[in-house]
Amino acid sequence: MNTEPIDLRAALDSFTELWSPRIVTRVNDYDVRVAKVSGDHLWHAHDDTDEFFLVLDGELTIELRGQDSVKLPKGSVFVVPRGMEHRPSAPDGASILMFEPTGTLSVGDRHEDVPGHVDATVGHPLGG
């Protein structure tokens, strides 16, 4: 475990890929991930875990299947309940932080076809 502080701005500056989260640290059995996002992700659901979002920069919209969309400006947090189909999007781009159990796939357990601009991953090591 890293015992040094983590500069989230430097972490975000270390990569350019969109929708491709980086693991900045771990808390118990959870990854703390950061990602740069722009445009639409894909409709998906995580059957066994909630999904926590914190907007670090920009604005993120989370569409929820059958419900109103949730707009998250910088500094906002939102938790998508387990099993709920959702689609994050950021038309003007955003930087986000997520807490997810280690090994959680970024496209969930159920999802539509994965477009080329979305990285289906359990997170990449920071700097990797």
From TrEMBL:
Residues 108-128 are annotated as: Disordered. Residues 39-92 form the Cupin type-2 domain. InterPro entries: Cupin_2, PKS_Associated_Protein, RmlC-like_jellyroll, RmlC_Cupin_sf. It comes from the Bacteria. SUPFAM superfamilies: RmlC-like cupins. Gene3D superfamilies: Jelly Rolls (2.60.120.10). Pfam families: Cupin_2. This is Cupin domain-containing protein. It comes from Actinomadura barringtoniae.
